[in-house]
């Protein structure tokens, strides 16, 4: 048996014709189509698991899980962040399970009812290349509407969960923390920031555009910036932004209705273990949520979290408003 990553279109066809072999876990994950998915697949096979990934944007996978509620196709969802997971919980999509390693997780990194647990803590960052100097250096997310940054950055596709977390972090600065209602000032700011942003041409290579100097201000997740900057020989400086940096955590949970519940539980136990998390951290420069795994991670990984002041966000409140916010952005703000 072997593991594979399935493109979305092929998966749609496959699921209408044949079922996955017994004991093969189908995992929905934004990590499924890149080096992270290949690494997880390889290590899972060594540990005795046969897995197949359905990759895609976090928003796309979230929408798919909701659409499949009556006939679930996934066994596990891996890599969605807090707002998405809380919304999936509200839809009763999870099979509760508390792995042994969850005992040592902080309260902020696990669902109180055992529906899902978080394994990475990921700063959503602003960074800039050496093409930006002096007074032009950004210091805040609220700089994005200024004329000097026009066309120097992009928000990315709204189906991306990274983009959604960037937008949530911005809007939360203008939100009533008790209700999540965003003020008119917040919507006006975001409208102006979108007007300043640049839309990449279809097929354009984002990191080559950054490397060329055409788009020297980067909005993304910390590990993605660090890895791609190194891969493309780009010098970047991270901004510890005024008002704080959104800190999100990627989670995994078992989907209710899985045909392979015991195998899914064993996979969760293996995947979230401090040993595997530390190995993953070393490979991908991403900070584990588990304290033992973080302690055993490279110093640079620990520094990647510690260099930022965290923006206080009540993700329980924000997750309940996110769909409404995204609808407003799509209908009234995006070009």
TrEMBL record:
Family matches, as Gene3D superfamilies: Periplasmic binding protein-like II
UniProt keyword Metal-binding, yes or no: yes
GO biological process, one term: thiamine transport
Keywords on record: Iron, Metal-binding, Signal
GO cellular component terms listed in the entry, alphabetical order: outer membrane-bounded periplasmic space
Keyword ATP-binding applies: no
Signal peptide: 1-19
SUPFAM superfamilies with a match to the protein in the record: Periplasmic binding protein-like II
A molecular function GO annotation: thiamine binding
Pfam families the UniProt entry points to: SBP_bac_6
Binding site for Fe cation: 222
Protein name: Iron(III) transport system substrate-binding protein
